[in-house]
From TrEMBL:
Residues that span the membrane, as ranges: none
Coiled coil spans: none
Domain UmuC: 15-228
InterPro entries: DNA/RNA_pol_sf, DNA_pol_Y-fam_lit_finger_sf, DNA_pol_Y-fam_little_finger, HUWE1/Rev1_UBM, IMS_HHH_1, Rev_trsase/Diguanyl_cyclase, UmuC
Function comment: Error-prone DNA polymerase specifically involved in DNA repair. Plays an important role in translesion synthesis, where the normal high-fidelity DNA polymerases cannot proceed and DNA synthesis stalls. Favors Hoogsteen base-pairing in the active site. Inserts the correct base with high-fidelity opposite an adenosine template. Exhibits low fidelity and efficiency opposite a thymidine template, where it will preferentially insert guanosine. May play a role in hypermutation of immunoglobulin genes. Forms a Schiff base with 5'-deoxyribose phosphate at abasic sites, but may not have lyase activity.
Gene of this entry: Poli
Biased composition (Polar residues): 436-452
EC numbers on record: 2.7.7.7
Highest rank taxon of the organism: Eukaryota
Protein name: DNA polymerase iota
Amino acid sequence: HSKSVSARNAACRVIVHVDLDCFYAQVEMVRNPELRDKPLGVQQKYIVVTCNYEARKLGVKKLMSVKDAKEKCPQLILVNGEDLTPYREMSYKVTELLEEFCPLVERLGFDENFVDITEIVEKRLNQLQQSGCSRVCVSGHVYNNQAIDLRDTMHVRLVIGSQIAEEFREAMHARLGLTGCAGVACNKLLSKLVSGTFKPNQQTVLLPESCQDLIRNLDRIQKVPGIGYKTSKRLETLGIRSVCDLQAFPSAVLEKELGVSIAQRIQKLSYGEDDSPVTPSGPPQSFSDEDSFKKCSSEVEVKEKIEELLPSLLDRVYKDGRQPHTVRLTIRQFSSTDKWFNRESRQCPIPPHLIQKFGKESNNVISPLVDILMKLFRKMVNADLPFHLTLLSVCFSNLKDVPSSKKGSIGFYLKQMPPTSGSGKRVQEMEDVSQGEGSASWNQNCNRTGTTKTRRLSEEKKSNIKKARNLDFPFHLSPGSIDQEVFRELPEDIKKEVMSEKTAEVISTENVLGQPSLCFAEDIYSASPHSKGLNSNKHSAGDSIHLTSARGSAMVQKHSSSTSCSVEYPRSALTGNSMEENPTDPPKFRDSSVVKAGASQTVLRVPVLDKDEQAFETNSKDKTCSRKAGIVFPPNVDPKTFYELPRDVQEELLAEWK
């Protein structure tokens, strides 16, 4: 079953793989030109991670120990390469340069890039045909010295691709001082395999007819990109050691051993088939840094290693401008049998109050981040028993743009202006009034259920309620961030949009008896601890119920040392007109259910809604305990994220907020 025509099925794509020569060493030579033409090695710990070609001529190899390298080449100059910053920066410069030619550039590590130049090739081919020119010259080598057939349009496309690849390499050398190899083929797999045929600073084009020769010349199955260490080990147990073995192996048996998707994928790779697209990398999806060592065997050492990794990592995050929302710790425990691949990781969300400090107060986040990472470490390693680590890695991921208040956005115009002596007073008065309004409605509601004595509002309080109906913006929604004067000037639709943006998710929870919480409808009430009503119920003693109503959720929370019953304005409900419609009228309910509060004799009627607003149950029993405490979150804290944190981190945050 010959699949040498697989390239023709790839819709005539032309892909270039660019691989920079001895990248770290080249960057050091660009930084210090005096190192050119001298044997140079880049050292990390006790290993020479790479060296230039002058050193290679004298017997130095990549990943050789410093001791052996010095014995081979006493005149070897070693540069410390443990700080990856200059290599990372140069790597992105190369990618940006390639993106000037073509937008389809995919990074692969620091020193490799795939470029899909199919569109550029098509344009040049059309120009060539229109000009009537019948001659094109290949740049660089042709794999296997295969003859080019100019009557074959795929051959012509690849030849044009070789010219473009040469332009890439010339631009890199002229503008960045770097040399590299390039492979030109019809897919990513083949372009990567052929790019290293001639080194250094050369390029090779692969014609479709030579595809099988290239693949079968690989001496080990692991040399096929996409077949990693673990997969190759599993294949070896099946007797598959070469590409030819894999091609000849029965598909049904392979699918049974590895699963259908993996088996089909690697058999396609063995024939040189790869239809994966070149995906533009864009900004980094994560920031990580790691440190490897011979031995780390105490918590103190682990903490020191983490503290060493964080500053440069936080600096990279700061320069990027986005905020990470997840942190991950990876460790590698020593193993005599599985030296390089015995890794384990744990991750967790970053607490919201720390996210806000990224970039601005990086020094202030190191200590709490170390604490979080140490907790992740203890989940993987029992520190009471002997352990032997050889690697630690810290990674920040789930990067999100910082919410901005640029001119042109509504948030910009609603920024609180410096308050005058009068405006601050006005805000305070309005807050008190809105609380009084809610307490009145609760008095009336509880009176209708026959469980609380009715207390009439004074004329003064009634007049305050009328004022409260004209509130410009609900003050309990971050009053410090809204300028009421500006808000009043906005059109009605903009006001509604602002209020909907400012509303926060109210987390539904179970009540104190473990019963499902209920979702309330349109009617909105608020009672303050200072107001009359349920607070004055003399029959209530000991424990009491704290009830929060909202369109979408309701919370019944138990308090051990409080006799107040309060209802807060639900944020999601404030987008309607309920602030202006009869705030003192009680809600109309179809039915009611009774909630008892332990030793308390107070009975509250919990509303049941109409069909279109039926109550819903929450099944978060595992989170109930942590939600019963009546937590009041700071304005910048997302409750959903909070409840995803480990329990010990939640307790730490609560202590900090108190």
